[in-house]
Amino acid sequence: FLMPWYIESIYGLFYLLMVLVAAGGNFIVIWIVVGHKRMRTVTNYFLVNLAISDALITIFNTMFNFIYMARSHWPFGSYYCKFTHFIVPCTISSSVFTFIAIAFDRYFIILHPMKPRLSARTVLAVIFGIWLASFAIAFPNLIYAQIFPFRCENDRTVCYLHWDDDDLINDDTDFRYNMVLFVVTYILPLLILCLTYMRVAVELWSGQPVGEWTEKLADSMRMKKRVVKMMVAVVCIFGLCWLPQNVFLIINAKRKQMDRKPHEIHIYLIIYWIAMSNSMYNPIIYCWMNAKFRNGFQRALRWLPCV
User: Fold this and answer.
1) Which residues pair with 46 in a beta bridge?
2) CA-CA distances (angstroms) from residue 299 to 135, 287, 295?
3) What is the pTM assigned to this prediction?
4) Residue 304: CB partners within 8 Å, gap ≥ 6?
5) What are the distances in angstroms from CA 222 to CA 33, 115, 149, 204, 228?
6) What is the mean pLDDT of the chain?
7) Which residues form the G-protein coupled receptors family 1 profile domain (predicted)?
8) At 86, phi and psi to the nearest 5?
9) Domains (range + CATH), the chain
């Protein structure tokens, strides 16, 4: 299936704008934290890790996969086929594990305020562990992703996961692998995050603060509430953006690209845009809900006439 050039151009414009906003916004987040000493907090280190994950998937996957879906042809070779299949579950795993790390950090700060905070070295060790686990989850894609010449009205090449024990069209192992990814990188993390933030919210909005109530303590409570609200917003946006993509992949896991109908290509282009657009929302949320990030964005974008 080849869509008309003008339809492809419209899709391409939306994808390109999303990539520019997502990449630019996440690079600014990294600059704000890394380039300003007062911004180097535990939570912000984790936010940098989120920004790195979002920037990686935006730069190395989004436009390449869009071209593949729009033209039903993979022109980027075997090695990049493996890499692009690897980068998506790797960065998504990194993001959700980082969400959990932030939630646990908030949990211990608010429910156990007397315990010592995480050190910078400990945070870096946690981030290293997050990437190690993410690499392990995505590693099968490096092994089993491959290109295959597909003979039809025009010679095309497809890029897909082909497991050794399955045929070309119906892939039971691919279905099982997508189900595992869905549970490990979506269902379980969101369940853990919901339970953790519910407990944190009960403590913040209903519990009694430790110590005498002072203006300093009131400011601290307000700041903790703002951080929790911001992270809940980030997690909710992630869940909403990636739900259609996950459901679509599971439903269609047993059918390869060569079995797609024309209307399915359009549906998937829209669903995939929604999923990838998650990468551009986090910087917007930080800018909207955090004054320090907002000031950083204003400095970074001061050359724009509207800022």
Assistant:
1) none
2) 35, 12, 6
3) 0.91
4) none
5) 21, 20, 59, 9, 10
6) 88
7) 25-286
8) -80, -40
9) 5-300 (1.20.1070.10)
